[in-house]
Design a protein that fits this description.
The complex is a heterodimer of chains A (115) and B (116).
Chain A lengths: L2 E4 L4 E4 L4 E3 L1 E4 L5 E7 L5 E7 L5 E4 L2 E4 L9 E3 L8 E8 L9 E3 L3 E6 L1
Parallel strand pairs in A: 2-12
Antiparallel strand pairs in A: 1-4, 3-9, 5-6, 5-10, 7-8, 8-9, 10-11, 10-12
Chain B lengths: L3 E4 L2 E4 L5 E7 L5 E7 L5 E9 L2 E4 L6 E3 L9 E3 L8 E8 L10 E3 L3 E5 L1
Parallel strand pairs in B: 2-11
Antiparallel strand pairs in B: 1-3, 3-8, 4-5, 4-9, 5-6, 7-8, 9-10, 9-11
The chains are: A mainly beta (115), B mainly beta (116).
Chain lengths: 115, 116
Amino acid sequence: GNSVTQMEGPVTLSEEAFLTINCTYTATGYPSLFWYVQYPGEGLQLLLKATKADDKGSNKGFEATYRKETTSFHLEKGSVQVSDSAVYFCALSDGSGGSNYKLTFGKGTLLTVNP
Amino acid sequence: DGGITQSPKYLFRKEGQNVTLSCEQNLNHDAMYWYRQDPGQGLRLIYYSQIVNDFQKGDIAEGYSVSREKKESFPLTVTSAQKNPTAFYLCASRSSGGLYSNQPQHFGDGTRLSIL
């Protein structure tokens, strides 16, 4: 079956530090990959997505590249801000057969950015 | 603005009581989903519906029930059979346009359910 593995948190950084959150996956077919962000007490918001190999998703200074050869979709940001403190979820959607309508999520990584 | 509305934001349940969580969307999405979120466990799928009057069990459907009588509404009932209902519940919807697997899910702001 499909699965997503994220680096375990929590991750604590100082403002303006470089961020990497690792995400690897296993899937049948040709999955689309997503990063979601969840701020305290809120639902999930789509941060970025990539739908095929070598695609790079980007938004609000965050980037992630779909690497089929390493089955990875690592999230990066060059300079984090306090406002980036949140939980980040990696997810995949497998385009094959009956799983077409479901997302598989990682367990989430809590990021705290200190001023 | 289009979006997903979950209500109430906080809900309390007494022992032996059924409670219903509301989820309404005005995005004209065909598919809707319910997830349960517990600390450190990510999101687990309870039920999902691809079209009106049809729904399927997810990974943790026991103790829950749903209905899908209207496209825009997908209420979740937490029954007394659910022995550990305290959690954060998230509703989501998804477009069926284009290549389906490319479409992201859009989430509501959640309902936090607690036991009295």
